[in-house]
């Protein structure tokens, strides 16, 4: 990995490798228990609902709602210039499936609101290996 | 058999308390800080180095190993050793475990401390330190999202939204605690803070402003835990450990905690009160973990001290002040006394219960609730109820 501008690559572990590989292909997937069908994230071998070690990867709806967001007023980490937003998103699949991610919009966007529906998007990281991050956008109401 | 932890009730005590100076640059190692605080606490208790047979601390890769402190203290037969990985959520577990070790007879005198050069060497909010040894950081760091002010800003907005809390509500926490700190010779912050100052200060991670965030501090604080029986024979009035409880917390790992606005302390609190045989109405003072302002009203709710949604009025009416109904963070807390990762809350509670808190003394304080971080990010929470023994 070269010293690049742009965000750091994730520190992938043995449980999470498949999830990050899917993200690099612009696919959002989650594990789902083979026994009780509970969703879980981040990746791990055992269901914390029923204790089963049986599971599979399933594509996610890619939709959720904003549970919170922050506006960072200085650059906390190299490669991410301020100001920038980080969102916390609750997936439609399950109430305790909550993911952080970047926001596809300006930091002072008046559309940012707790409860606003969002759709997943992806942004590729520079350099190798191929990797992508989550970048959420607000679903505009069509009413 | 479940006894809600009441098997520990009043069997152990805090017999001594010690502090180093609080500073922005101690100029010494965390080993030196730990040794200074521990020996001060032993002196305070009227105990000798040779009395120590147990050691306990928490750290996050930012301080000296507990065993090296034991060796430096000259403990030859180390009967109890706890070197816990963790942040503020584990702070009160350290004291609870020391109490369990003493109550079980494994050890007789356990010193507990937190020693850190959090300003000059290992800034929690800094960018220069390696990512903590925690799996979840891989999902956060690439977004430029990893430091405590950011993680707690995320929680703060959710909590404020749910309760209808305003910036002014958080500001009153900061202003109240600064008033307390101004009465403490130990406190880092020596200048008054007004609401205008609070609101005019820059955002760190919106919605949190500068004075919503605690002070990264170089310091160590130690307490000595021994049996209640032995403590009664020592120099200072014993501060009984009436109850202790540990709880879980919120992490990214989907674990059934979908609502970030109610902390794991809400689950821990009933067990803690049952363990102590003491209820929320009996609490005279509360030293509540305050790495960030909003955690204080959040815990007032979750420990059943103030009705959910009414903490803004509680502060506006002065009830959290030293002359209020329930003085909160009487030392100024992490926001204004200094950030010693939870241990300074235990020490302040002990000082108040002994009547040694000087200008900030709450008259007649008999029962104290003191808490660790209520389970966010790190995933565990902990708290103690301490009480002064009624004189015979």
Question: Could you describe the 3D structure shown?
Answer:
The complex is a heterodimer of chains A (143) and B (392). Chain A is mainly beta and 143 residues long. Chain A has one helix at 17-24; strands at residues 29-33, 39-40, 55-59, 63-72, 84-91, 98-103, 117-119, 122-124, 132-138. In chain A, the strands form 2 sheets. In chain A, strands 4-5-6-9-7 form a 5-stranded mixed barrel. A 3-stranded antiparallel β-sheet of chain A has the order 2-1-3, with helices on one face. In chain A, a hairpin with a 7-residue loop joins strand 8 and strand 9 (132-138). The longest helix of chain A has 8 residues, at 17-24. By secondary structure, chain B is an alpha/beta fold. Chain B has 12 helices and 11 strands. In chain B, helix 2 links the parallel strand 2 and strand 3 (80-85). Chain B starts with 11 loop residues before the first strand and ends with a strand. In chain B, 62% of the residues are buried. Chain A binds chain B through residues 7-13, 15-16, 39-42, 44, 48, 67-80, 84, 86, 88, 90, 94-102, 114, 125, 133, and chain B through 125, 127, 131, 135-147, 150, 153-155, 157-158, 161, 202-207, 252-258, 260. Strand 4 of chain A pairs antiparallel with strand 5 (203-206) of chain B. Chain A: It holds the Pfam family OB_ChsH2_C. Chain A: Residues 57-122 form the ChsH2 C-terminal OB-fold domain.
- Widest sheet: strand ordering of chain A: 4-5-6-9-7
Q: Please tell me the overall pLDDT of chain A.
A: 93
- Measured between the Cα atoms of the first and last residue of chain B, the distance is 33 Å
What is the chains' assembly state?
heterodimer
CATH class wording of chain B: Alpha Beta
Number of helices of chain B: 12
Report the count of strand segments of chain A: 9
Percentage beta strand of chain A: 25-35%
Largest interface: A-B, 45 and 37 residues
Ends distance of chain A = 47 Å
Q: For the report, how would you describe the main beta sheet of chain A?
A: 5 strands, mixed, barrel
Order of SSEs of chain B: EHEHEHEHHHEEEHEHEHHHHEE
Rg of chain B (C-alpha, Å): 19 Å
Q: What's the helical proportion of residues of chain B?
A: 25-40%
Number of strands of chain B: 11
Extract low-pLDDT stretches of chain B: none
Protein name (chain B): Lipid-transfer protein
Domain Thiolase C-terminal (chain B): 257-386
Pfam families (chain B): Thiolase_C_1
Organism (chain B): Streptodolium elevatio
């Amino acid at each position: 990995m070269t010293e690049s501008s742009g965000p750091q690559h994730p520190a992938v572990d043995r449980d999470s490798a498949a999830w990050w590989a899917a993200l690099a292909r612009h696919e959002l997937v989650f594990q789902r228990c083979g026994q009780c069908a509970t969703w879980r994230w981040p990746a791990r071998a055992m269901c914390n609902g029923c204790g089963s070690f049986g599971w599979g990867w399933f594509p996610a709806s890619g939709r959720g709602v904003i549970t919170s967001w922050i506006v960072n007023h200085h650059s906390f980490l190299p490669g991410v210039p301020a100001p920038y937003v980080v969102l916390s998103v609750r997936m439609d699949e399950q109430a305790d499936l909550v993911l952080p991610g970047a926001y596809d919009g300006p930091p002072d966007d008046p559309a940012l609101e707790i409860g606003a529906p969002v759709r997943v998007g992806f942004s590729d990281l520079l350099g190798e290996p191929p990797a992508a991050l989550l970048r959420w956008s607000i679903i505009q109401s069509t009413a | 058999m479940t006894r809600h932890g009441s098997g520990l009730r009043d069997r152990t005590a805090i017999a001594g308390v010690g502090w180093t100076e609080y500073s922005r640059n101690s100029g010494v190692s965390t080993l030196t800080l730990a040794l200074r605080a521990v020996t001060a606490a032993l002196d305070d208790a009227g105990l000798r180095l040779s009395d120590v047979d147990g050691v306990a601390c928490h750290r996050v890769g930012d301080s000296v190993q507990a065993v090296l402190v034991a060796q430096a203290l000259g403990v030859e037969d180390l009967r109890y050793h706890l070197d816990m990985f963790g942040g503020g959520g584990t702070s009160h577990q350290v004291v609870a475990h020391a109490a369990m070790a003493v109550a079980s007879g494994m050890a007789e005198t356990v010193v507990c401390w937190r020693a850190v050069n959090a300003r000059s060497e290992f800034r929690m909010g800094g960018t220069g330190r390696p990512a903590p040894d925690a799996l979840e950081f891989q999902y956060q760091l690439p977004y430029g999202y990893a430091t405590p002010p950011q993680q707690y800003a995320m929680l703060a907005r959710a909590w404020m939204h749910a309760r209808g809390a305003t910036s002014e509500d958080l500001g009153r926490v900061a202003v109240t605690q600064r008033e307390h700190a101004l009465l403490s010779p130990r406190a880092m912050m020596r200048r008054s803070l007004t609401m205008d100052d609070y609101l005019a200060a820059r955002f760190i991670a919106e919605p949190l402003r500068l004075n919503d965030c605690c002070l990264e501090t170089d310091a160590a604080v130690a307490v000595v835990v021994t049996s209640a029986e032995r403590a009664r024979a020592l120099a200072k009035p014993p501060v009984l450990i009436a109850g202790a409880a540990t709880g879980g917390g919120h992490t990214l790992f989907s674990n059934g905690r979908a609502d970030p606005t109610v902390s794991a302390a809400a689950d821990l609190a009933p067990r803690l009160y049952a363990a102590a045989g003491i209820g929320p109405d009996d609490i005279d003072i509360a030293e509540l973990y305050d790495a960030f302002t909003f955690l204080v009203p959040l815990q007032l709710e979750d420990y059943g001290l103030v009705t959910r949604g009414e903490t803004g009025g509680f502060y506006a009416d002065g009830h959290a002040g030293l002359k209020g109904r329930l003085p909160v963070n009487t030392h100024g807390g992490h926001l204004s006394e200094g950030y010693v990762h939870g241990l300074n809350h235990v020490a302040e509670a002990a000082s108040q219960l002994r009547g040694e808190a000087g200008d900030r003394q709450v008259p007649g304080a008999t029962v104290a609730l003191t808490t660790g971080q209520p389970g966010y990010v790190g995933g565990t929470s902990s708290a103690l109820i301490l009480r002064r023994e009624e004189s015979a």
